[in-house]
Amino acid sequence: MTPPEVDVQTLRLLVAVAARGSLGAAARELGMTQPAASARVREFEARWRVGVLERSPRGSRLTEDGEAVVSWARVLLHELETVRSSLLALGEERRAGVSVAASLTIADLILPRWLAELRARRPDVSPRLHVVNSDTVAAMVRAGEVDLGFIESTGIPADLARQVVGHDSLAVVVAPSHPWARRRTPLTREELQAASYVLREPGSGTRSTFEAALSQPPKVALEASSTSALVGAAAAGVGPAVVSRRAVSGDVERGRLVVVPTDLDLRRPLTAVWDRRRRLRDAASDLVVIAAEASRSP
Prior knowledge:
Blueprint: H1 8-20, H2 23-29, H3 34-48, E1 53-56, E2 59-62, H4 64-96, E3 99-102, H5 104-121, E4 128-131, H6 134-142, E5 148-151, E6 160-174, H7 189-193, E7 196-199, H8 205-214, E8 219-223, H9 227-235, E9 241-244, H10 245-253, E10 258-260, E11 267-275, H11 282-296
Parallel strand pairs: 3-4, 3-5, 7-8
Antiparallel strand pairs: 1-2, 5-11, 6-9, 6-10, 6-11
Helix pairs in contact: 1-2, 1-4, 2-3, 5-11
């Protein structure tokens, strides 16, 4: 035979009786009529076959069994309140919070507009942003350190959920004094393989995209984790730099750098990634939608 369920509301009523000294006062505290409260207690006693209240013309008081039930009820109600408060806090965190990791190009050039739109739609959201390379983004998502990641690598870890939210293209850029600056025909893969470059560190989406297009690890003249450092080194003549076209558009317009034509396919997707085992928080899900909408805008 299935045991009866515990009636939590009646437990609340009995705890209130112990605190207020009467069934009528306890009923008023809980928004009940006294007849309804009396009926609840009678049903509780019949269900569990225990007497919890002694009734008399002067009122009602807890029996010895009733005192025991109230002591157990206080523990249970405290735990229920803890669960309720925790669920409310978790719900608020899910609605309002979002922790994001993004690779450098996205974080510097694209993500700020997405975050601004997120704030416009959700003023209560306070995003937390980590700027790291693409490999580290994937590792942070996998470890549960962030809710959402944005990477610019062509290789997406198979264990992560993903959605392409845009596209980007790399450019090989040189100082105006470099011999390639006067090149009118595209450089071949063989010519590009022979050069030494100013590049991002291994693990970055820019580096992995260029390596895949070049079909071999490139020779490195200088390695840096900052796009501005790469641009400065290329402009100073250290060597050709490989960077996002978005990142150097101003330098190219001002004549500080020159884009070199090549035979390589240097396009790459911009991809949102998250742990498929965890439900995306509402704000993180909204950010993916905003990113995808932005890529479709003219």
